[in-house]
Amino acid sequence: MNIQRKYSLPNCTLLLEGLSDINRAANFQELRPELSILVNAECYLSGYNQPLVGGREFFESLVRAVSAYAQEFLSNVTNPQAHNQESELVEFQKIDSNQHRLIVHSESSPENFESNSNYPKPPIQIDLSTVQLFDLVEAVDQFFADTQTLPELSLELQPVTKRYGGASSAFIKQAIPAAVGVSSLAVAAIAFNLIPPPEVRPPAPKPDEQTSSTIPSVTPSASPTVTPIAAAAIPTPAAVAAATPASTTKPAVTDLEALLNTVSEITDASQLRALNRQVYNQIHPAWTNRLGLKQELIYRVGVAADGAIVGYKALNKDANQGVQQTPLPNLLYNPANRAPISNEPIAQFRVVFTRQGVLEVSPWRGYFRTPEVVGEKITDSKTVKGLNQRLYKTVRQSWSGKPTFTRDLKYRVAVNKDGVIADYEPLNQVAFDYFRETPLPKMFQAIYGSNVAAPNNKEPLAHFQVLFKPSGTLEVIPWQGYQ
Questions:
Q1: How distant, in Å, are the alpha carbons of 72, 76, 102, 134, 195 from that of 128?
Q2: CB contact at 8 A, 410 and 425
Q3: CB 437 within 8 Å of CB 397
Q4: Which residues of 87-119 are buried (b: 16+ CB within 10 A; e: fewer)?
Q5: Mean pLDDT (the chain, rounded)
Q6: Phi-psi region of 327 (alpha: psi -120 to 50; beta: other; left: phi over 0)
Q7: CA–CA separation, 38 vs 150, rounded Å?
Q8: Digit-coded pLDDT (tens) for 403-436
């Protein structure tokens, strides 16, 4: 299973992609699997359109060089590990008090050796401001704080030898406060004195603005590579308790993964199948503006057992910036209408808004076994045969016109003992795309008042597979299960 980790700061984003070593995993079903095999590492820096890309050797060299150079910059003591061109792929050079040069040498590989061994690629050089440098340092710190990503990789900091220190008066002045126990404060003051203070203009407060607001609209940054991808909204009991009257209560902004670390996950295939339909039925009619997407918007969505969407997280940059082009912010459950999420199990789904305007919803981890239809079933063969014929006549009489689709539309249709349609479900993508050319939604809406009403599962039902063929032929056969 491909795993992605992202560590985002305003001026720097680290993106790691890799796999989980099943032999080492303590629990294959864990909500946040361990990324133990690094396949690709990307470092996005503000002001640069192209990321720095490499494998594990590049990433390990990057974190060593960043940490060593930060140590050197804060202490004013030269650290040779930050400038080791002979054994490191990444090195730093100080330009002045507010400019730092990041140099990345090309990784050696069999392909390069065979084709371009005599003409090595020139190193990549990027000039960083002190603000950018410390955002990069913070991103590296976030990585080391993540115990589920490359846990065997640790940073070994070693004191530099005396010959690199010197006895400058500046260094001696910095060493004095360290001797009295306030070194961290002094070093931080020295570092931030070098950073030009940003001009901050606080927004004017609005009287109707709530503290427990939903996800704010995301405005694309001037630098397209610096916007953090993660975006989630989970209402918490504390936020609900502190909220204003119920009519204006909205979800609070927290982390989707934080919730998933505290609750169990719904993994039953049959329950996931039913929730998959509920998620689709909520998002599909609410996604009204399907034009203008330049890239697919991909989200990880958390859903409670009753189908309520309790959180989501953008999985790519376009999804983070284009969240307002989706109905997700408006579909998050409102604690005024539902009890707050506490220890309820959560199901996870992958939701994709494609450039073609097609909505795709699937379980985050797939199905571990073939799902089954939930609810009591009519199994008497004579009754099933009679209902089969009755359903065929009802649908055949209502289906007219020349089909425009070129592939079979497959549906699961359930009826009660009186032959009244109680549920229907598309089984392939063309059935989703061309459902309006079938009589099923009109039949369902005539009975329940809505095309997306919850299925009637309070009584035994007989299930059938219904095929609408491009030739105009209709087939109704007893349900044999999901394929």
A1: 16, 18, 7, 10, 12
A2: no
A3: no
A4: ebbbbbeeeeeeebebbbbeeeeeeeeeeeeee
A5: 75
A6: alpha
A7: 8
A8: 999 999 999 999 999 999 988 889 888 998 888 8
What's the pTM? 0.46
pLDDT at 64 over 70: yes
Cα 13 to Cα 4: distance, rounded to the nearest angstrom:
13
* Separation CA 337–CA 333 (nearest Å): 8
Task: Give CA separation, 142 vs 6, 63, 93, 133, 475, in Å.
Answer: 9, 11, 24, 14, 57
Q: At what angle are helices 169-179 and 183-193 packed, to 10 degrees?
A: 140
- The span from the CA of 218 to the CA of 229, in Å, is 11
CA distance 391 to 342: 44
Question: 286 pLDDT exceeds 70?
Answer: yes
- Cα angle value 64/65/70 (rounded, 5°): 105
- Work out the pLDDT band at 20, boundaries 50, 70, 90: confident
What residues have CB less than 8 Å from 226, skipping those under 6 apart? 9, 10, 11, 12, 13, 44, 45, 46
Hey, what are 202's tokens?
A: 């606080």
Q: Which of 392, 393, 399, 391 is nearest to 442 (CA)?
A: 399
Cβ atoms 260, 348 nearer than 8 A: yes
- Better-predicted residue by pLDDT, 255 or 293: 293
Encoding tokens for residue 7?
A: 């560590």
Residue 303 CA to residue 276 CA, distance in Å, equals: 9
Three-state DSSP class for residue 169: helix
pLDDT in tens, 308-344: 888 888 888 888 888 889 999 888 877 656 566 667 8
Nearest CA to 138 out of 325, 319, 13, 266 is that of 13
Q: Are 97 and 84 in contact (CB under 8 A)?
A: no
Number of residues in the chain: 483
Locus of tokens 């009890």: 339
Short-list 262, 239, 459, 279, CA closest to 364: 279
Determine the Cα–Cα distance for residues 45 and 56; give it in Å rounded to an integer. Answer: 19
**């459902």: which residue's tokens?**
435
Residue holding tokens 């980790």? 5
Tokens of 65: 């060089």
Cβ neighbours of residue 436 under 8 Å, at least 6 residues apart? none
Please count the helices (runs of H) and the strands (runs of E) in the chain.
13, 15
Whether 443 and 466 have beta carbons less than 8 Å apart is answered as: no
Q: What is the pLDDT of residue 370?
A: 86
